[in-house]
Write a structure and sequence with these properties.
40 residues; single chain; mainly alpha; elongated; 1 helix
Length: 40
């Protein structure tokens, strides 16, 4: 049962990884901006 679930979720993990890699690349290019908050 666990093997079946693992194989079903594998493509979703690839898509998620691709999205995260793309997001990080956009941050590196400066297309996405990060914010800093003044917290104690």
């Amino acid at each position: 049962m666990i093997k079946v679930v693992r194989y079903l979720l594998l493509p979703f993990s690839w898509v998620y990884g691709l999205i995260i890699i793309t997001r990080n690349y956009f941050y590196d290019l400066g297309l996405f901006k990060s914010q800093k908050f003044n917290l104690p």
